[in-house]
Amino acid sequence: MKKTMAFFLLLTLVASTKAQVRLPKIFGDSMVLQRNAPLRVWGWAAPAEAITVQFHQQQRSVKADANGNWETVLAPEQVGGPYDLQVKGKITITLHGILMGDLWVCSGQSNMEMPVKGWSQVVNADQEIAAANYPSIRLFTVEKNIQGKPADEVKSGAWQTCNPQSIPPFSAVGYFFGRALHQQLHVPIGLINSTWGGTDIESWISRKGFESEPYYKWLTAITPEKSTADMTAMKDRQMQAYLASMQLNNIDTATIKQWQSVELDDSQWRNMNVPELWESQLPGPRFDGVIWYRKEINIDEADAGKPAVLQLAMIDDNDVTYVNGVQVGAIQGYNVKRVYNVAGSLLKKGKNVIAVRVDDTGGGGGIYGETEDCVLTIDGKKITLAGQWKFRIESMQTSTGIGPNDYPSVLYNGMISPIVKLAVKGAIWYQGENNASRAYEYRKAMPLLINDWRIRWKQPAMPFYFVQLTSYNNANGNSNKGSSWAELREAQAMATALPNTGMAVTIDLGDPGDIHPHNKQDVGKRLALLALQHTYGMKTVASGPVYKSMQIKGNHVTIQFTNTEKGLTASNNEVIGFEVAGANQHFYPAKATIAGATVNVTAPEVTTPVAVRYAWADDDSKANLFNTARLPAAPFRTDNWKSITEGKKYTPPLTQH
């Protein structure tokens, strides 16, 4: 009887604990609430429980509904604080140190996620960290979370005051944006960092958003709304079926201890091209897991016994690398070049074997990069390692959940939906690298994201400022062979047709060899200039020159611009980045000269110009046209010739056919 009573009391305690009044995790000590906007406060309690909310000089009472949900709205408050927020039901919750200011959402993929100092770091990171004493800037990072349906709660997170201890892991672009606003406006700034590197824009758009856009009718048909558990089970089934169809499901690791050795017979292993992600070959785009690579090379007697340098381009995500059975290196990180020293004692005359264990945790997988970065160098002599390697699967990921790009809306559901009840000043966005291969379709996706978020937040005029892709030599793309990155930039620029938007041009801030350039200070400042001008009404220059029109006379073209300020400038007085084409659609580098607010363009190879392009390449870092405010001209083209990404549609890995 005593055991029964104890069990009953335990159940009662658990039930009462679950029913206790609570606030969503986005609320907390030291948070910033949006000034001059209705203050929505919500949470959960026991059904019909009476709740009293007190903040500053306001008080509201409300009852929880039959499901335990409650919500109340306080009148707008001006800049001020710190205040306490008290929520009283059967228990009392008190949050301290709340400031009234401006709240901005910072979202996107890795260039927005990139910390002040962490897995990468900004220019002068240590100095920036030491100087980050801003008690009125508050920071919240939303934990990464994938959900099949819109979530009510963020997974975790806590508000922090900006100081040298809290700032290193925070979004650098977000911080520099917020700092610039705070320094100009002298009001508290709250920054919500909701980012995930390497993600598609489609993961951040709600299902209702897709359903509202006729273009995506085909997508909603093949991706019905599913729970996270259902999607995980579907992924496992599809993976098993796919591997069986490719005859890759017979995973036998009985000899795995010998897979790095010279003596192993790998004649039954399959072939894979290196450097190239395995998504574009076997085992294909649906595979995440562990694969071993093996490459046999022949060493001359003259080179045997000499030390060497082994380069394996980059490996997505993590590797352990062996030469003749001996480990020579191991690195974690998908965007790190692999360069390993090989002791001379390891290399023998004749047959030698390089073995690489690659662990791919999601997204792209395998050895990838430039062919010239896949070499073994001995005493200045280079032996290419590019070409066919043997591979065998060690294990595949199953029942580990879905990835952030596996299904549309999963990041909106897990990382945006839980905060849309919170009034905000606006959003900043840095994303697009993952969508470059489908750049033309981004013309639909980007406006949809903006409109979708505005609807979900119930703020139809919510300011939305975004970063145009910077320079990066993704695939040597240019005007004549085509450039997916240039086309993505064009799609981003088109989104500025929506009201209350703005685009920060950053082509001059990129690094051709690093997709994560380190000058994030200027990126944040340029986003802040847009907000200061358009949202806060300050008189400032917020944009570089933007193409307006062109006039053709003979073999000369005159380009007119807006946003020229007091005129156009170019470093070294030589304008770089313009190209001209005739009717044959072949572009030639052009000589360009500045004439006040216009640029005159000509190319000797083109006697009858038809089209002009500026900064139209993956890597356009040499383009150097600015206005007198030292803001760069936006890339553009005057033609509408067929795009290389036209017709390429979003197809998530998980679909229901």
Topology:
Layout: H1 2-19, E1 32-34, E2 39-44, E3 50-55, E4 58-63, E5 69-74, E6 80-88, E7 92-108, H2 110-113, H3 125-130, E8 134-141, E9 160-162, H4 172-185, E10 189-195, H5 207-212, H6 217-222, H7 228-245, E11 270-274, E12 289-299, E13 308-316, E14 318-323, E15 326-332, E16 337-342, E17 350-360, E18 366-368, E19 374-378, E20 381-384, E21 387-396, H8 410-416, E22 426-430, H9 442-457, E23 464-467, H10 484-494, E24 501-504, H11 521-535, E25 546-553, E26 556-562, E27 568-570, E28 578-581, E29 587-589, E30 591-595, E31 598-602, E32 611-614, E33 625-627, E34 636-637
Parallel strand pairs: 1-7, 7-10, 7-22, 8-10, 22-23, 23-24
Antiparallel strand pairs: 2-5, 3-4, 3-6, 6-7, 8-9, 11-21, 12-17, 12-21, 13-16, 13-18, 13-19, 14-15, 14-17, 19-20, 25-26, 26-31, 27-33, 28-29, 28-32, 30-31, 32-34
Describe the protein.
The chain has 657 residues and is of the alpha+beta class. Helix content is 18%, strand content 31%. Strands 1, 3, 4, 6, 7, 8, 9, 10, 22, 23 and 24 form an eleven-stranded mixed β-sheet that branches. Strands 11-21-12-17-14-15 form a six-stranded antiparallel β-sheet, with no helix packed on it. A hairpin with a 2-residue loop joins β14 and β15. α4 crosses α11. The chain is globular, with a radius of gyration of 28 Å. 45% of the residues are buried. The model is unreliable at 7-17 (pLDDT under 50).
Number of strands: 34
Unreliable stretches (pLDDT < 50, length at least 5) are: 7-17
Radius of gyration (CA) equals: 28 Å
Overall 3D form: globular
Largest sheet: 11 strands, mixed
Distance between the termini: 56 Å
**Counting H and I runs of at least 4 residues, what is the number of helices?**
11
Helix content: 10-25%
How much is the average pLDDT? Answer: 94
- Give the helix/strand class: alpha+beta
Strand content: 25-35%
